[in-house]
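Sample entry copied in:
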Amino acid sequence: MTEQNIKCFKPLAIHGPKLNILIVGYGALGKRKGKAYENAGSNVISVDPKQESEATYKMTFKAFIESHEPIFDRQHLVLISTNRTDVNEEVEFYCINKYKLYNRTDKSENSCFHDLSVEYKDDYFIAVGSGGKSPEIGRYVIDALRTQVKIDDIDIKNIIAKRKGG
């Protein structure tokens, strides 16, 4: 992703409990993302054709659409995390045609959004993202900030009050 492309993204905080999330591809990455959204209170469902997976629906995306399209229609965000480019392209194409926001883990420049690593303090939060380059980078930066700045000791409300002239 180029610097110009990353400047096209606008940070947005969304309220997890109001979201329906579909994860296509429920391997390690899909599970990790699903757990993060579940922890935020979102309703998460998953699709994976592997019978040994822990996916909600053990079927291909195509079969899911053919048999459960009304469920797909209720989803707000789609996380595409399979290891097959052809499947990811199929899901992306379907999302575009259904006006769904999607994140494609194998081709971040095609994504409509990126997940950020977040540190919460008082009524505020610090979010760091890597533009989809690596899910580890954001967490690494947050952890580095925490050790160098001691986020737990920061009085964010006082900093904001001083900035506002209070």
Remarks:
- The mean pLDDT is 83.
- Strands lie at 20-24, 43-47, 77-80, 101-104, 117-121, 124-128.
- Helices lie at 3-6, 28-39, 61-73, 85-97, 135-149, 156-163.
- The CA atoms of residues 65 and 72 lie 7 Å apart.
